[in-house]
Amino acid sequence: MRHLGYIYIGIYLYKVYRNLRRRPAASKNGAFCAGLCVAQTCAGRKTAMDEKKLRVYTTAVSIAGLSVFLLSLWEVYPYYLPGSSRGDIWSYSLMMVLLMVVCRMLPIYFAEDKTLEISFVPVLACAITGGAPLAVVLFGVSTLFTVMQNPATKHYYWPLAREPRKELFNTGNILVSISAGGLPLLLAGMPDNLASLPALGLSLLFAALCILVNLTLFILYYQVGGMGQFGTLMRQNIGGLLPNIIATVPLGLLLGIVINMPNSYFYIVLFMAPLMLARYSFKLYLDSKSMHMRTIAALSMAVDAKDHYTQGHSRRVAYYSEAIARAMHKSPSFVADVKTAALLHDVGKIGIDDAVLNKPAALTAEEFELIQQHPVMGRKIIDSIRFSDTVNDAVLYHHHRYDAKGYPAEGPAPGELPLSAAILAVADTFDAMTSDRPYRNGMSREQALAVMQEVAGSQLDPKVVEVFISLAPELDAAREPEESLL
């Protein structure tokens, strides 16, 4: 039987290898998403050389993961032999694999673009009750049975068949991470009393090492692919470690304690039920929020369709504004509000006559006065939706200059323009200057940035201009970032 198992593994790996030869590895966004923690990244474009480096890197991580799996399998193989001291190993393994599969298929969302992979909870519980090698083996086995749902079609698929290179990289990453996190457990030994401070300390150390190694290998993917600098990406994502550690360690310890109790299967069901309910409730909230954002995006596209000369303008301004806010290290809620405001900043144009909006020549003074009413009209339109002050101020004051000139005439004093409006003004100005109009051609990026530097401190907020200029080479490469907004 042992030899048949090795033959089966060999046949399976050969099939996977053949799939790797046929399939490209890039996902929709050209990036892999690590399993234990989901990081936000700002990836640039890949060259053919970068793609070759990525193939070498992902193959190396996959081989490292396979090596760790085989070494761990050799370590735990005696557990499954007849007469082993671990008499309940088969039922224990089945239970842990089932928990890992369910948790991998159903992550908990704690923000719109961040998930907590609660598969780490059974991984930690397995590591502290059965040892890190057993956790490595069972997590590797769970990969064979994990299926995922396509968010667009709602159809389920097997990742190993659909995206083998991606799945092998992610699994290899996690297996290496579990192995690294298990070193303190191997050196110090897990105390029998899991409800003790030493057990808590070792669990925290295991979680910290495991998630840190996982994040490091994930970020190295972007570094190797020329899609970002390691230090910058690490600083952007290191903050995501704390929620994962705080949330998963107590749950993993508690699950480990429950596993050692009599009638543990019954208590495990009770343990997992609240987690699944919390996941379902928060997913409903995020689905509702996503629908809200899609409605806003559709409204902005309706405005763009009304004004034929600014097609795609709101989407580009939203892209630029969001990037500026992130570069200024603003809170996620502020970034989301700025993006929303950018999508809606011209919604007041719905109340402007089409003949004025689509005039193929320069506007008269009277016509320009009508155009100047669109920020006030836009604010009135969104008032009933009860957006935050960040959104309201940006929509109302995105044409109000930094020196308190511009329109509307009544607004903040010089130098006191709300930051959301200042960001939106910079993004709006850049896109307007670089876009073609019937009566003029758009400026080049260099010309537009030079003009913005000249008016910094008078028309535009100088700090925001400085940030935008540092980002402009990357941002201007994506003039139509439609998918990221919807």
UniProtKB/TrEMBL annotation:
Limits of the HD-GYP domain: 288-484
Signal peptide: none
TM regions (residue ranges): 56-77, 89-110, 122-147, 199-221, 241-259, 265-286
A Pfam family recorded for this sequence: HD_5
UniProt keywords, alphabetically: Membrane, Transmembrane, Transmembrane helix
SUPFAM superfamilies: HD-domain/PDEase-like (SSF109604)
Coiled coil regions in record: none
UniProt cross-references to PROSITE patterns, sorted A to Z: HD, HD_GYP
UniProt domain HD: residue ranges: 310-433
PANTHER family: CYCLIC DI-GMP PHOSPHODIESTERASE PA4108, CYCLIC DI-GMP PHOSPHODIESTERASE PA4108-RELATED
Protein name: Uncharacterized protein
Organism: Ruthenibacterium lactatiformans
Classification of source organism: Bacteria, Bacillati, Bacillota, Clostridia, Eubacteriales
